[in-house]
Amino acid sequence: MKVLCLQGSPRKQGSTATLVSLIEQTLMETGHEVECLDVADLDIGGCIGCYRCKRDPDELMCSVQDDAQKVFAKMVAADAIVYASPLYAWGFPGQLKSFIDRHFCLVTGYDDPATAHSHIAGKRLALLLTCGWPAGEGNTDCVTEVFNRFARFLLTDKVAELVVDRVGSPDDLTDEHREQARAFAEQLAG
Q: How far is the C-alpha of 91 from the C-alpha of 146, rounded, in Å?
């Protein structure tokens, strides 16, 4: 299986990046091809709401010319996509949020389920979320609900979710967290 990991944390040595490395290692050890991208390193602007992407359902098109087109091509070629993110102000960090907003171009006909078309329909999606505070209602639930709706909008199959809380740095990661990350990778691979 070809897996694309979208690492959304601007901290290259943080808890999210550490867990992504472990997930990548686990997947590669079981024969999967993995590519990880640090979204914060990419030149990706926000959606401008021009709707040019809706003109031709068969064409993957966005009028904003930046690194997003390269990432979308990698997403189309992948079998599974992992969105890895720390929790920032009850949501995704700005760099990842801008990219998620740009996913609007991946779907046409979204107002009618009978005609909806997604360029990544059927892909396996997974969410890895880290946070320094306790998880749960009023903290991480907003992101997990947004991700669930996002996956449905994209006509994809959300197959795994891991929320690792109370980790402000990689030093806070326990053996249990590492085992959870390995199990997450196995669940993603199916």
A: 9
Q: Which letter does DSSP use for residue 59 in this model? A: S
Q: List b or e across 26-40, with b for residues whose CB sees 16 or more CB atoms inside 10 angstroms.
A: bbeeeebebebbbbb
Domain boundaries, the chain: 2-189
For domain 2-189, say whether CATH 3.10.20.30 is its number: no
Structure tokens given for 105: 């171009």
Are 146 and 126 contacting, i.e. CB atoms less than 8 angstroms apart?
A: no
Q: How far is CA 132 from CA 13, 58, 90, 137, in A?
A: 15, 42, 12, 15
Query: Within its chain, how far is the Cα of 85 from the centroid?
Result: 8
Cβ within 8 Å of residue 111, ≥6 positions away = none
> pLDDT tens-digit profile of 19-55?
999 999 999 999 999 999 999 999 999 999 999 999 8
The reply to whether the predicted model has a pTM over 0.90 is yes
* Tokens 């929320």 belong to residue: 163
